[in-house]
Structure formats: C-alpha cells, structure tokens
Amino acid sequence: MVEHSRSYVSADYLIMAGRLFEGIKQRSYELLGDLGAASVLDIGCGAGLDTVSMGLQAGERGRVWGIDLDAEMVALAQRRTRELGLAQRVRHRVADACDLPFGDAQFDAVRSERLLMHLPDPTAALAEAVRVTRPQGRLVMIDTDWGSLSTATAEVEIERCLARFRAEKIFPNGYSGRRLYGLMAAAGLQGIVLEPVAIHLTDLALWRFITRADDVERFALERRVLSREALQRWRAALEDASEKKAFFGSVTVVIAAAQRQSVSVS
Ligand SMILES: C[S@@+](CC[C@H](N)C(=O)[O-])C[C@H]1O[C@@H](n2cnc3c(N)ncnc32)[C@H](O)[C@@H]1O
User: Fold this and answer.
1) Do the domain assignments include residue 253?
2) Which residue minimizes the CA distance to atom 4 of ligand 1?
3) CA distance between the termini of the chain
4) Is the terminal CB of the chain with fewer CB neighbours within 10 Å at N or C?
C-alpha cells in the first residue's frame, strides 16, 4: 500500500528544488507556446514559482491560473503574486487536479510539474487537463521517473532496493516520468514531444535533502524493507564516497509536450 501523505513536500523544499529545475521550467514555458496573450493553467502549482515566472513573461493580456490541493501553498502563491504586483494577471485557487473548477476548452495552454507522481489516478487528472485545454491548445507535463534514481556506491543491492521502494511505496505513481508518453498517447494527444533530462548532484547533503533520503530510509526501516545494519552500511558508504569526492546521484525527469486534437468536423 502506498502512503500518500508521505510524498508531500514543503514550500521551502519547492523553492530549493526550483533552482535545480530552472532549466526544465524555462523549457516547459517555451513548449507551452507564446505566453504573451495566452490563458495558461498550472495544475499542482505549489508555492507559485511557475505561475509567477509565467506571469512575468506574459503581456498585459496574458492570464495565468494556478491550482493546488494544498491551501497553504495557494496562500503563499497568492502572497508572492501580490508582492510582485501581478495580481491582475496571475491567480491561484485551491482545487483538485481530478476535478478542475474550470469550463471546457478554457485555456490555451496547460502545464503540470511533478504533480502526477503524487496521484493514484493520473489518467483522471490528464483527462481533466485535456478537457480544460482548447482544441489545438498545448499541454506540457513534467514528471520524475523515480525508478531511474541512481547513486554511485558499492552497496548496489541496498541502492536498488531503496530506489524501488521509493518508486513503488513512497509515491502513488513513482514511475510517472517513464509513463507520461503512454498516458498522453492513450488520451489521444497529438504531436507528442519527449525530452528526458538527467539531473545530477555530487553534493551528498543536497542530494539527501532533494531526495528526502531521511524520510525514505526511515519508512524503509519501519516497513522492514531494510535492516538497521544495512542502513548503517548504506549511510557509511555514501559518507565515504562524499569524503573521497566520489559521490554521484542522478535521476531522469521527463518533459512531455503535446497538443489537444482539433475538433473533428463531420
Ligand atoms: C512536488 S510539488 C510541485 C509543485 C510545483 N509544480 C513546482 O514545480 O514547484 C507537487 C504539488 O502537487 C500538489 N498536489 C498533490 N496532489 C494534488 C491534487 N490532487 N490536486 C492538485 N494539486 C495536488 C501538492 O500539494 C504540491 O504542491
């Protein structure tokens, strides 16, 4: 059974992760098309890093909406928007990705980043995203393939065991990155473009923070997926690699962009 609440993160985490994801974020805005006068929705907007960035890139006629299930995130996003004087063109509200409070075909472009990994039913969320996108509008989704998390260590068995535990038990949909293409194709989206990006870190402390290694290891211990002795060996091996300046960890993040079908004329 997956522990849903265990996969959620704080605003501080999102801000730190946002620095690592800067290139990916910028690329996603490009793939959304011209933001100048477009209406754009960011689903699972978190603290509003992307709604604010897109609001800054939009022109006077551009409109950006962000929704998130977490009311604290939405309040923070709204505050950032007000402080930057963007309230006219950027708005946020609390909503569920699987039940969007918007009409059909309302947006020119729809985006989500690291959302689907948290959802037990990503197909329902994508159907909602497609519904609110206008025909020929753009959809851009970014998700991590947690199964690809790879760490240089001699403790390969523990490393593989933890990577699999994370992908299958920490996240409701931990393989979401590798599944984006199939999901979009099944939803009838057209012109799917895939851009997998490998993010890597050589700083062990930052890697532990970004991958929430303490939490994952604690849950693995609680679930008896890992013994205390194995966990000590694992941590010692990582520390040793770090001291020798040999620590390396990477994970694949997939950017998938596509277009909603035009309305068929019979
Ligand atoms: C990893 S964060 C990413 C946030 C943001 N996209 C970013 O890149 O900074 C995932 C976000 O999805 C939100 N979320 C999770 N389940 C959701 C749902 N069913 N509907 C809307 N948002 C959801 C969480 O509250 C969280 O803010």
Assistant:
1) yes
2) 46
3) 46
4) C
User: How many angstroms is it from 56 CA to the middle of ligand 1?
Assistant: 21
Q: How far, in Å, from the CA of 253 to the mean position of ligand 1?
A: 16
**Strand pairing of 39-43 and 107-113?**
parallel
264 lies in a domain?
no
Residues of the domain holding 56: 4-259
Place of tokens 């609680």: 222
CATH number at 143 reads 3.40.50.150
Instruction: Assess if residue 265 is contained within a domain.
Output: no
Q: Specify whether the CB–CB gap between 81 and 55 falls below 8 A.
A: yes
C-alpha torsion 228→231→233→234, nearest 10? 180
* Ligand 1 site residues, Cβ closer than 6 angstroms: 9, 14, 18, 44-46, 49-50, 68-70, 73, 96-98, 113-115, 118-119
Question: Domain total for the chain?
Answer: 1
pLDDT tens-digit readout, 203-238:
999 999 999 999 999 999 999 999 999 999 999 999
Give per-residue pLDDT as tens, 51-102. 999 999 998 899 999 999 999 999 999 999 999 999 999 999 999 999 999 9
Statement: the pTM of the whole predicted model exceeds 0.85: yes
Return all residues near 29 (Cβ < 8 A) that are at least 6 apart: 35, 50, 53, 54, 57
| C-alpha of residue 9 to centroid of ligand 1, in Å | 9
CA dihedral 205, 206, 210, 211 (to 10 degrees): -40
